[in-house]
Amino acid sequence: MQQQSKRHLLTSALPYINGVKHLGNLIGSMLPADVHARFLRACGEEVLFVCATDEHGTPAELAAEEAGLEVAEYCRRQHRIQAQLGERFGLSFDVFGRSSSRQNADQTQYFAQRLEEAGLLEARSSRQLFSTADGRFLPDRYVLGTCPRCGYELARGDQCERCGRLLDPMELIEPRSAISGSRELEPRGTRHLFLLQSRLADELRGWLEEHEEWPPLARSIGLKWLDEGLGDRSITRDLSWGIPVDRPGFEGKVYYVWFDAPIAYIGATREWADAREEPGAWRRWWRRSEDVRYVQFMAKDNVPFHVVGFPCTLLGSGEQWKLVDFLKAFNWLTYYGGKFSTSRGVGIFMDQALELLPADYWRYHLLANAPEAGDVSFTWEDFARTVNKDLADTFGNFVNRSLTFAERRFGGEVPGGGGPGPAELQLQDDLDRRLAALTDLMQALELRKAVAELRGIWSLGNAYFDHKQPWVAIEADRDDAALTLRYCVNLVAFFARLGAPVIPFTAARLLDDLAVPAAERRWPDRFDPAALAPGHGFTLPPLLFRKLSEGDVDEWRQRFGAPDSADREPGLGVLEAQAPGGDGGEPGRVEEEHSHR
Questions:
Q1: Are residues 286 and 424 in the same domain?
Q2: Distance of CA 474 to CAs 275, 328, 483, 585, Å?
Q3: 492-517: per-residue pLDDT in tens?
Q4: Number of folded domains in the chain?
């Protein structure tokens, strides 16, 4: 188990500014980082969770042009939209900054100065594609063509979206302008600044090899780059939008987006510190410190820039900057096997998802199927099964059965009476064991396994309720029924506390309805069946999760596009799994159709 530190710095890969993000972006970085931040805070740890919009580069310029707006105004509007959507999804950023901020410009130019002083920047003349139709040099993302490695016909000049290979625009087969579509491109001479990464290869390798605990996906990418020979990298571009290059002879050029975007983690922290009127507070997080554990979250296509480019910037500065301690990398979430894409509008986007259902439905499903070991395909059939089986039939049904029965038979108060017997002792042992496993998995960032363990803990509640049969005991042994319901009400609070990092809105509502004090909402050390004592009042909550129907799935398949019905897997069965057993007249309320639209 990772020893907990006093302070935790968490950064999520910066979402591009060009439009609302899709569910693949959400599960690839922002949502897992939020779960970890919430877990650590619940354990009493000090956390700084940093993110920002990535506002420079080609995507911003092209999107602004399409929207008919100046780039700065487009970015301002989109930052507000993304911040609001993040809040609606429960992303608990301590700061959600902007890479176009003054603080990030200052920090980027500072690093460039330090690298130059260290002899690690070099001006080089190079050949770059010039579009005669557009009358301008085309930076890498302004060039589209066929990938020379995998044959993908929509590869960008900096990276192939299909195979992940980093590219130079000159490598593309049949290149064309992303602005006009013109193929009238010709190489012309220009000058750019290069970061001499090759000189840092040995130091970078030594740092990477220290981190054997990293997921293989993250560590292997960096070592592969080094094994193939680490080349120098251009860090400037011929663009008007970006952080200006503060060097004579480079007027009209800006720093490359992948140079300034990781630096924006620091820039955003400076925004946070300035907003608090503590301008120096950012240093206690970013200057090297043994009591800070720094964890980064990102999808696999962002890994090269975080295990090569950004560390080279920090190491090359010659100063004591905080390097990442653990990099949590994710594979891709696909949509019926095809890649989500913001630029092509493929998949489900965050605003569309919230039009259909509240955030906790999506948060739970995405985390339960997190693409940790490999790519994972999102399908509406799987989504319905997860919601119906786990959220409605397991968690929601236990909550509603328990609290409805207690409210009807004991007047909305935790009942007193009875003493623990074999069933309660066994339940305590099972909960202690599984809580320890869940805590270890949460600390280790094994999110998919952690959600499976959480589901298993919820199932213990239903098994206990069914075994004790309080609807029978109430007639023959009221004290035993009271004991069962006292345990069940406290289990609801216990389950909500454990579920809070994953389904925070539902958990908070339940804890409010149970009148659990704020000081008692931390991550529990063990289950306490007397935490809510006899006589403690509670409010019966509304239905937590509605069950999804065949009609829902068919409607969403049609609306968002999916394979033809002939290709659809048989036996959806979203209505087949019913709630655990009833009581012949006192079943409580099972989850049923209840619109959240």
A1: no
A2: 58, 50, 11, 12
A3: 999 999 999 999 999 999 999 999 99
A4: 3
Structural domain range at position 124: 120-237
Q: Are residues 207 and 95 in the same domain?
A: no
Contact 136, 130 (CB under 8 A): yes
In a domain, 244, yes or no: no
Q: Quick one: pLDDT band at residue 281, thresholds 50, 70, 90? A: very high
Distance from C-alpha of 59 to C-alpha of 261, rounded to nearest angstrom: 13
pLDDT tens track for 532-558: 999 999 999 999 999 999 999 999 999
Give the global pTM: 0.89
- In a domain? residue 588: no
pLDDT at 440: 98
Inter-axis angle of helices 397-410 and 447-468, to 10 degrees?
40
Query: CATH code at 552?
Result: 1.10.730.10
- Calculate Rg over the CA atoms of the chain: 27
Q: Are 392 and 123 in contact (CB under 8 A)?
A: no
Helix (H, G, I), strand (E, B) or coil at 512: helix
Residue 364 covered by a domain: no
Instruction: Indicate whether 348 belongs to any domain.
Output: yes
Range from 17-26, 135-144, 301-310, 478-487 carrying the lowest mean pLDDT: 135-144
CA distance 92 to 571: 38
User: Which residue has 């890498």 as its token pair?
Assistant: 140
pLDDT of residue 165: 83
